Amino acid sequence: MSKRASIAMNDQEVADFLAGRHVMNMATIGPTGRPHLVGMWYGWAPDGRLACHTYPRSQKIKNLERNPALTALVEDGAVYDELRGVQLICDAEIVDDRDIVHAVAESTYERYTAEQSGPLNDDTRPFLHAYVAKRVAVLLDVVDTASWDHAKLQSAT
Questions:
Q1: Which of 20, 83, 123, 136 has a 20 to 30 Å separation from 75 between CA atoms?
Q2: For residues 149 and 88, what is the distance between their CA atoms, to the nearest angstrom?
Q3: So where are the chain's domains?
Q4: Which CATH superfamily hosts domain 3-156?
């Protein structure tokens, strides 16, 4: 087995890792053909796809309207033997359906904000929906993945 294969995560490890609270670095193709890279919080759409929300006039949306190709990187680790990550090669779908945008915003809120601000409830949900009133959702259709967990190097030696 190659060293690369020995550190790859299996499907369950990838799912567990993506369920963690990380930043997703999202690369789209800019108007000059060069990558446009941004860090995004993410959640899930009602159909289970990884998703984020943003303004429809943002550069990443303009880029995706021209070319739906997107590469996302979710990673963590402070030292070499702790590095873990998942690269997602995707086709992106831009969605302005309010129910989907609200679901993505709620998922993202629960992952990143609820711990500090409290869980969503009937009193707070309208404020979140107002916050994303002018946003769209970006749903990721994953075409291919690559993953690594350098902690596995210890057991591979």
A1: 136
A2: 15
A3: 3-156
A4: Electron Transport, Fmn-binding Protein; Chain A (2.30.110.10)
Whether the CB-CB separation of 142 and 88 falls below 8 Å is answered with yes
pTM of the model: 0.92
* 31 close to 67: Cβ distance less than 8 angstroms: no
Would you call 77 helix, strand, or coil by DSSP? coil
CA distance linking residue 90 with residue 19, whole number of Å: 18
Q: Please, which contacts does 19-26 make with residues 24 or more away whose CB atoms are closer than 8 Å?
A: 20/76, 21/111, 21/112, 22/74, 22/75, 22/76, 23/74, 24/50, 24/52, 24/72, 24/73, 24/74, 25/72, 25/73, 25/74, 25/75, 26/52, 26/60, 26/70, 26/71, 26/72
Tens-digit pLDDT profile for residues 12-42: 999 999 999 999 999 999 999 999 999 999 9
User: Residue 91 class from Cβ within 10 Å (0-12 exposed, 13-18 middle, 19+ buried)?
Assistant: middle
Point out which residues pair with 79 in neighbouring strands: none
Indicate the helix (H) or strand (E) that contains 17.
helix 11-19
